[in-house]
Amino acid sequence: MWDHNTHCHRYLLNQIPSKANRSLDIGCGLGLFARKLAERFNLVDALKVDKAVLAEAAQLNFAANIADVNGDFLTTALPETA
Questions:
Q1: Angle at the Cα of 24 from the Cα atoms of 58 and 52, rounded to 5 degrees
Q2: Using an 8 Å Cβ cutoff, are 35 and 41 in contact?
Q3: Fewest CB within a 10 Å sphere: which of 13, 42, 45, 64?
Q4: Is residue 10 predicted with pLDDT exceeding 70?
């Protein structure tokens, strides 16, 4: 069965260096891609608007280098560090 996200995630991960400093995952939902990014980046800002999803994602995104952030990407200031 075709899974658009799995295909896109693989493609995007192949476009970035094996280790980098910081990434922003906008509209990350429960954080599947954020968790994949956390393996390659020192810090991943996982931005989401829905507070209910934020609470659930925080339970799943247990990597220390993922910062779950609630807000809109046009108006939210990102934290300096996680």
A1: 30
A2: no
A3: 64
A4: yes
Question: pLDDT tens for residues 25-60?
Answer: 999 889 999 999 999 999 999 999 998 888 888 888
Please enumerate in sequence order all residues whose Cβ is within 8 A of that of 26, keeping only pairs 6 or more positions apart, or say none.
47, 73
pTM of the model: 0.82
CB 48 within 8 A of CB 61: no
Q: Are 66 and 38 in contact (CB under 8 A)?
A: yes
CB-CB contact of 36 with 18 (8 Å): no
CATH topology of domain 22-82: Rossmann fold (3.40.50)
Place of tokens 């989401």: 48
- Cβ–Cβ under 8 Å, residues 54 and 71: no
